[in-house]
Amino acid sequence: MKAFDLSLYLVLDPDLCAGIGMVETARLAVAGGATMVQLRDKHAGTIRMIETGRALKQALDGTGALLIINDDVEAAIAIGADGLHIGQEDMDARKARAMVGAEMILGLSVESEVLANAVDPDLIDYTGVGPVFATPTKADHKQPIGFDGLARLVKASPVPSVAIGGLKADHVAEVFAAGARGLAVVSAICGTPDPEAATRRIAAEIRKARA
Ligand code: TZP
Ligand code: MG
């Protein structure tokens, strides 16, 4: 499996990125220091996921940033993405791993300590832990866990974790203090007037937190 850096993980949202689009948003964010980019489009079918995913792959090529596909295993394989991210209600981890093979990065969302404890490190490479805060970006999100909950779930997770949910540049220090390897953000970058500058601000906080 490829080495991966969870520190500044952009999750794309087609509605929030509507102005300049997901591909341009990703390009700017990676120029600003995003280390991973997830294509998450709950309304796109596999054909559209593949189309957008291929454009993203081309935009990210040579940058070192990795491309992760949310939920659609068929699209992830067709795109030749670096990884697949699944939720608890999506495909079963064992089946997903069997389909993507050993090389692809496989991430799983966990919203509780019980779920974090149940993660099989032979199948899953990282966990997405949250939501730390309530967020309008995901209408059906689970109960927010706060930074105390984040620390507990990170500790329970047998693989590295990235925090998600309502996170901004101001939260970076607490995210790393809780033991997470990084933060996953949507609205802190997507749809902002200057996605590259917004990403740079977060990246600068990450350098401080890690120093
Ligand atoms: N999963 C849990 S919260 C969330 C997802 C996809 C959305 C996070 O969006 P934002 O805008 O960074 O709060
Ligand atoms: Mg899902």
Automatic annotation (TrEMBL):
<feature type="binding site">
    <location>
        <begin position="186"/>
        <end position="187"/>
    </location>
    <ligand>
        <name>2-[(2R,5Z)-2-carboxy-4-methylthiazol-5(2H)-ylidene]ethyl phosphate</name>
    </ligand>
</feature>
<dbReference type="GO" id="GO:0004789">
    <property type="term" value="F:thiamine-phosphate diphosphorylase activity"/>
</dbReference>
<comment type="pathway">
    <text>Cofactor biosynthesis; thiamine diphosphate biosynthesis; thiamine phosphate from 4-amino-2-methyl-5-diphosphomethylpyrimidine and 4-methyl-5-(2-phosphoethyl)-thiazole: step 1/1.</text>
</comment>
<feature type="binding site">
    <location>
        <position position="138"/>
    </location>
    <ligand>
        <name>4-amino-2-methyl-5-(diphosphooxymethyl)pyrimidine</name>
    </ligand>
</feature>
<dbReference type="InterPro" id="IPR034291">
    <property type="entry name" value="TMP_synthase"/>
</dbReference>
<dbReference type="InterPro" id="IPR036206">
    <property type="entry name" value="ThiamineP_synth_sf"/>
</dbReference>
<comment type="similarity">
    <text>Belongs to the thiamine-phosphate synthase family.</text>
</comment>
<dbReference type="Pfam" id="PF02581">
    <property type="entry name" value="TMP-TENI"/>
</dbReference>
<dbReference type="InterPro" id="IPR013785">
    <property type="entry name" value="Aldolase_TIM"/>
</dbReference>
<protein>
    <recommendedName>
        <fullName>Thiamine-phosphate synthase</fullName>
        <ecNumber>2.5.1.3</ecNumber>
    </recommendedName>
</protein>
<keyword id="KW-0808">Transferase</keyword>
<dbReference type="InterPro" id="IPR022998">
    <property type="entry name" value="ThiamineP_synth_TenI"/>
</dbReference>
<keyword id="KW-0479">Metal-binding</keyword>
<feature type="binding site">
    <location>
        <position position="109"/>
    </location>
    <ligand>
        <name>4-amino-2-methyl-5-(diphosphooxymethyl)pyrimidine</name>
    </ligand>
</feature>
<feature type="binding site">
    <location>
        <position position="166"/>
    </location>
    <ligand>
        <name>2-[(2R,5Z)-2-carboxy-4-methylthiazol-5(2H)-ylidene]ethyl phosphate</name>
    </ligand>
</feature>
<feature type="binding site">
    <location>
        <position position="71"/>
    </location>
    <ligand>
        <name>Mg(2+)</name>
    </ligand>
</feature>
<keyword id="KW-0784">Thiamine biosynthesis</keyword>
<feature type="binding site">
    <location>
        <begin position="135"/>
        <end position="137"/>
    </location>
    <ligand>
        <name>2-[(2R,5Z)-2-carboxy-4-methylthiazol-5(2H)-ylidene]ethyl phosphate</name>
    </ligand>
</feature>
<feature type="binding site">
    <location>
        <position position="70"/>
    </location>
    <ligand>
        <name>4-amino-2-methyl-5-(diphosphooxymethyl)pyrimidine</name>
    </ligand>
</feature>
<feature type="binding site">
    <location>
        <position position="90"/>
    </location>
    <ligand>
        <name>Mg(2+)</name>
    </ligand>
</feature>
<comment type="function">
    <text>Condenses 4-methyl-5-(beta-hydroxyethyl)thiazole monophosphate (THZ-P) and 2-methyl-4-amino-5-hydroxymethyl pyrimidine pyrophosphate (HMP-PP) to form thiamine monophosphate (TMP).</text>
</comment>
<keyword id="KW-0460">Magnesium</keyword>
<feature type="domain" description="Thiamine phosphate synthase/TenI">
    <location>
        <begin position="8"/>
        <end position="189"/>
    </location>
</feature>
<feature type="binding site">
    <location>
        <begin position="38"/>
        <end position="42"/>
    </location>
    <ligand>
        <name>4-amino-2-methyl-5-(diphosphooxymethyl)pyrimidine</name>
    </ligand>
</feature>
